[in-house]
Design a protein that fits this description.
By secondary structure, the chain is of the alpha/beta class. Helix content is 42%, strand content 12%. The chain has a 5-stranded parallel sheet. The longest helix is centred in the last third of the chain and has 16 residues, at 142-157. It is globular, with a radius of gyration of 20 Å. The termini are far apart. The mean pLDDT is 82.
Length: 177
């Protein structure tokens, strides 16, 4: 009967919920992310499977955006060549703060099977932009991608968004000392 009583009165103690505004904002940001997909090679095909009805990637609250200016995070999936590296940097720079990067697949993470002899392949997208979550696999299964998405949401939930300027100034002082 305890569960049924709770449905009638979910907020015991007068209906007051205590918490921080920062936690509420982070919860909202983590559950309504807009993403830009920079898909290359076979990992992009596997990402399409994650977006299909069987796996339903949108259940995480994510919406694809055509412009980096509207995106909260970018998904780099597949082999990034040296020529494409400039475009990835440009897209990353056009995104608004706070911005996040998911590196999907062995090629985006470390160059994949081309890392040793492929002079034209970037040996990991983290050499040109900061990566927040790595999703391993060649190509990764949709389940692995979902695990990476959960890790990104957790990172956003734990992020401090207030007093950011003060924290950045303190970090700059530490680096300059």
């Amino acid at each position: 009967m305890g569960l049924l009583d709770r449905l009638d009165n979910p907020f015991e103690g007068g209906g007051i919920i205590l918490g921080k505004v920062e936690d509420l904002l982070n919860w909202g940001r983590s559950k309504s992310d807009w993403y830009l997909h920079f898909g290359l090679a076979c990992c992009a095909i596997e990402f399409m499977a994650a977006n299909a009805s069987h796996f339903d990637f949108m259940r995480f609250g994510t919406i694809p955006r055509p412009s980096p200016r509207q995106a909260d995070f970018i998904i780099v999936s597949g082999t990034v060549t040296m020529k494409m590296a400039e475009r990835v940097i440009r897209l990353y720079e056009q995104m608004a703060e706070p911005k996040y990067v998911l590196s999907m697949g062995s090629c985006a993470n470390s160059g994949g099977p081309y890392w040793e002899h492929g002079y034209h392949v970037l040996k990991g997208v983290d050499r040109i932009i900061p990566v927040d979550v790595y999703i391993p696999g060649c190509p990764p299964r949709p389940e692995a991608f979902f695990e990476g998405m959960v890790k990104l949401q957790k990172k956003i939930n734990e992020q401090q968004i207030f007093n950011k300027r003060k924290r950045l100034e303190e970090e700059d002082k530490k680096l300059s000392a």
